[in-house]
């Protein structure tokens, strides 16, 4: 009698079971913190898309570039400026929207690139083992040895300070985190019965990796991705704060904080508004990540 080809085992652990997408969504709805984090994340992504459109459309750039020296450092609501103005009289609302577009563009772009690279190398190293595993593990350890700030300075010197240097710096280091976690999970999964059965049936290694291993690690990868987007947002703000990120007149949340701190004794809003935006974005992403962790790991599921 022919042995049926094994199907992908969706979760890891004795308590795991296959759950359709609608059940995962129901669990997300039941977790109030995660659901609120998901809603906030969607809202901030919408703000980020709007900011990217404004940055890319010459006819809309006046929204964050126009200066009004009669209303410098204005408080929220003054002269039609909902969140106030900075030292040049530029509207803080539109500058924050545009800066959010920069931050999320960097976060999503850097995390997506590192996710693909880390997932690929982690699966290859964990599945094949041997010399390939040692080489990838050595590369991971070497990558973690480089401070992120030093990598950003190197890229800024090779290219020029800006968004490209920040994305490359984050991508050069962060992929190792994905690769290390994926490698560890794949090493444990490759000894499972459904992987052994797939090998016995003569299934090629690439098909085993894509069909059986990748679906089993995607839960963990998605949780990590939500955290790494938050880390990338903070990193971009930090680099912009010290002048290695987006360059004027392009607004950046970190750059806005750096400029606003010089006028803190006169008005707190130029530094507070972008700072609160960064905090809310990170809070939303971390809450979403906690909810995804509860859904994909049944041992941590509380709802």
Protein architecture, described:
The protein has 303 residues and is mainly α. The chain is built from 11 helices and no strands. The protein has helices at residues 21-30, 32-56, 62-65, 92-128, 130-144, 148-158, 163-189, 193-200, 205-241, 253-260, 269-296. Mean pLDDT is 85; it is low at 1-20.
Summarize the topology.
Elements (H helix, E strand, L loop, with lengths): L20 H10 L1 H25 L5 H4 L26 H37 L1 H15 L3 H11 L4 H27 L3 H8 L4 H37 L11 H8 L8 H28 L7
Helix pairs in contact: 2-4, 2-11, 4-5, 4-7, 4-9, 4-11, 5-7, 6-7, 7-9, 8-9, 9-10, 9-11, 10-11
Main β sheet profile: none
Write down the secondary-structure element order.
Answer: HHHHHHHHHHH
Number of strands: 0
What Rg do the Cα atoms give?
A: 23 Å
Shape: elongated
Total of helices: 11
Our measurement of the CA-to-CA distance between the termini, rounded to an integer number of angstroms, reads 43 Å
- The helicity comes to 55-70%
Structural class: mainly alpha
Summarize this structure as a short list of keywords or feature phrases.
303 residues; mainly alpha; 0% strand
Short description:
This protein has 303 residues and is mainly α.
């Amino acid at each position: 009698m022919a042995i049926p080809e094994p199907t992908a085992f969706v979760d890891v652990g004795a308590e795991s079971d296959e759950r359709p997408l609608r059940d995962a969504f129901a669990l997300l709805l039941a977790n109030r913190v995660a659901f609120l984090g998901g809603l906030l994340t969607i809202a901030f992504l919408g703000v980020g898309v709007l900011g990217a459109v404004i940055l890319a459309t010459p006819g809309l750039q006046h929204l964050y570039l126009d200066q009004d020296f009669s209303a410098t450092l204005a408080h929220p609501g003054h002269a039609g400026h909902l969140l106030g103005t900075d030292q040049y009289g530029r509207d803080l609302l539109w500058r924050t929207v545009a800066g959010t577009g920069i931050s999320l563009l960097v976060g999503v772009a850097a995390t997506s690139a590192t996710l693909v690279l880390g997932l690929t190398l982690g699966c290859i190293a964990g599945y094949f083992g041997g010399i390939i595993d040692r080489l990838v593990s050595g590369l991971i350890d070497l990558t973690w040895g480089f401070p992120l700030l030093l990598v950003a300075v190197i890229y800024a010197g090779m290219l020029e300070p800006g968004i490209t240097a920040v994305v490359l710096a984050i991508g050069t280091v962060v992929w190792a985190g994905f690769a290390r976690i994926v490698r560890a999970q794949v090493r444990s999964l490759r000894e499972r019965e459904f992987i052994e059965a797939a090998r016995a049936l003569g299934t090629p290694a690439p098909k085993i990796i894509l069909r059986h291993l990748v679906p089993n690690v995607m839960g963990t990868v998605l949780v990590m991705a939500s955290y790494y987007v938050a880390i990338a947002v903070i990193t971009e703000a930090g680099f912009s704060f010290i002048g290695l990120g987006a360059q004027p007149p392009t607004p950046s949340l970190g750059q806005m904080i750096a400029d606003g701190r010089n006028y803190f004794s006169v008005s707190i809003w130029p530094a507070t508004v972008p700072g609160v935006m960064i905090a809310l974005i990170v809070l939303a992403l971390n809450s979403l990540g906690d909810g995804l962790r509860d859904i994909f790991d049944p041992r941590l599921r509380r709802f």
